[in-house]
Q: What sequence folds into this?
């Protein structure tokens, strides 16, 4: 039997080779991946907008709590640190506004905000409220759940109250640092470690009384 | 002269029927022409595969478009909520409210008829000042300081916030209604005469101070479904009592002068599906709305 000419043989057995198929599938996969990648992009845009707004409102609320002159009579400024009910006084704690003799440390408050069904509103909407279990009033070392991140909460908040205007150095006697500087740092996502989180930083000035 | 198609076909049939005849009997040209075509089966299979791929692509495009649209609508709702919160924080932090020991009446008012200064507050909108006001949503109206313009010495403006329904005609001619957050505002130049009249009244009972509310209001944020205000009192328990008294007794824990504002908004796609009767439904608010709250300090002095 005579052999077929080379050209004729290739034509008769014309088909895609494995390499061609793999390349084609690779191109298709890249295209599909690019399209699918657009889904979370749109969702992220909405999520970031929501979190930025909530961060601003949380900072506004904390600075308002720390500014409230009415609560100072209770031994410090009252801020909500936990709970679904903002009308329950047990969910508040007093942050002292005075500084001991020789004190140099700033005051720190660590909070975690998660979505909770409010129990203090007639419409009971879902709001971001301070988580009951993740609260720390110690600093300056961050608690481990703040450093490493934690599952559950949406936002983590660090509040630092500073001797901003004690220009002469640490007080030599028990004095009131008045006014004081408040930095509120809201971080997201809560599940990520601190180095990988987006930070929204807000600053305010409060009076002691 | 090249062979006719009929001849080629006959040659091919002969080739297929006599396997001992190898394709070498055909010239390369004939062989290429015999193979250079898709069969009907191949075409149908390719078309089917293409249809499936196209359907998938169209489906993905549709889903992607919806996701983008929804994300945009949620971003819009958030942006409007943020703008509303900023303006409300500014207005409410300077609202004129007076305590019961300061005003001309012994009990602290929630409405104009017994107010020490013109102030109206309804926690649930029942019989509210604003016509068409949403049920279970707060309304409040009062005075804020505002700089007069030019030679106008007035420095007090009237302002109010409420949620009310609005009818809109869409591009298809259908009338749809939705609830929106409104801001009522009368600038100092127009407010001073009404305030003077109100103050000159012996009991402040006139309700004509906050006049023509729809005409003097603008939409601050669309698709609002929840507005609540809580006035923290200086007392041993936190109450929504507008109690700005000078009570300094040794209450066990809480005291303060703060106002809390709570707002919820539906994204546009959700708002178009929810009927007016279900608009204020708590389940819907929890399920679909984006809610925001914040507190502001209201200095006593």
A:
């Amino acid at each position: 039997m005579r052999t077929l000419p080379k050209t004729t043989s290739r034509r008769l057995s014309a088909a895609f080779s494995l390499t061609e198929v793999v390349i084609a599938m690779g191109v298709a996969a890249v295209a599909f991946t690019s399209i699918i990648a657009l889904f979370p992009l749109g969702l992220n845009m909405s999520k970031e907008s929501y979190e930025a707004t909530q961060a601003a409102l949380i900072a506004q609320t904390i600075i308002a709590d720390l500014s409230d002159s009415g609560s100072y009579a209770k031994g410090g400024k009252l801020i909500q640190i936990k709970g679904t009910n903002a009308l329950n006084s047990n969910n508040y704690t007093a942050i002292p506004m005075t500084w001991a003799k020789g004190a140099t440390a700033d005051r720190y408050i660590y909070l975690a905000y998660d979505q909770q069904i409010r129990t203090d509103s007639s419409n009971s909407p879902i709001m971001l409220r301070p988580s009951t279990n993740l609260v720390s009033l110690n600093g300056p070392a961050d608690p481990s759940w703040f450093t490493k991140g934690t599952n559950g909460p949406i936002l983590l908040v660090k509040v630092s109250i500073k001797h901003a205007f004690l220009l002469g150095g640490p007080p030599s006697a028990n004095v009131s640092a008045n006014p004081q500087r408040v930095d509120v740092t809201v971080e997201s996502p809560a599940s990520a470690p601190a180095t990988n989180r987006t930070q929204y930083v807000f600053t305010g000035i409060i009076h002691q009384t | 002269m090249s062979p006719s198609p009929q001849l080629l076909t006959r040659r091919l049939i002969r080739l297929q029927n006599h396997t001992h005849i190898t394709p070498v009997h055909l010239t390369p040209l004939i062989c290429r022409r015999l193979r250079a075509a898709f069969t009907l089966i191949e075409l149908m299979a390719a078309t089917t595969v293409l249809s499936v791929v196209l359907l998938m692509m169209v489906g993905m495009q549709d889903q992607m478009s919806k996701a983008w649209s929804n994300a945009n609508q949620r971003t819009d709702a958030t942006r409007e909520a943020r703008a509303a919160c900023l303006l409300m924080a500014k207005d409410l932090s300077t609202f004129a409210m007076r305590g019961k020991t300061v005003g001309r009446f012994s009990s602290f008012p929630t409405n104009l008829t017994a107010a020490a200064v013109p102030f109206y507050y309804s926690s649930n909108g029942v019989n509210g000042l604003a016509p068409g006001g949403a049920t279970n949503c707060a309304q409040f109206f009062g005075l804020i300081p505002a700089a007069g313009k030019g030679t106008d010495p007035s420095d007090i403006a009237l302002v109010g916030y409420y949620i009310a329904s609005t009818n809109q005609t869409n591009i298809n001619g259908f009338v749809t209604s939705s609830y929106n957050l409104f801001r009522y505002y009368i600038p100092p130049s127009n407010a001073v005469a009404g305030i003077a009249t109100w103050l000159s009244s012996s009991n402040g009972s006139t309700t004509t101070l906050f006049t023509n509310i729809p005409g003097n209001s603008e939409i601050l944020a669309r698709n609002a479904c929840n507005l609540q205000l809580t006035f923290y009192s200086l007392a041993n328990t936190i109450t929504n009592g507008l109690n700005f008294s000078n009570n300094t007794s040794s209450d066990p824990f809480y005291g303060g002068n703060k106002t809390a504002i709570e707002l919820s908004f539906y994204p546009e796609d959700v708002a178009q599906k929810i009927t007016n009767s279900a608009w204020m439904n708590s389940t819907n608010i929890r399920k679909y709305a984006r809610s925001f709250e914040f507190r502001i300090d209201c200095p006593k002095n």
Q: What stands out?
A: Residues 1-33 of chain B form one domain. Chain B touches chain A through 66 residues (CB under 8 Å).
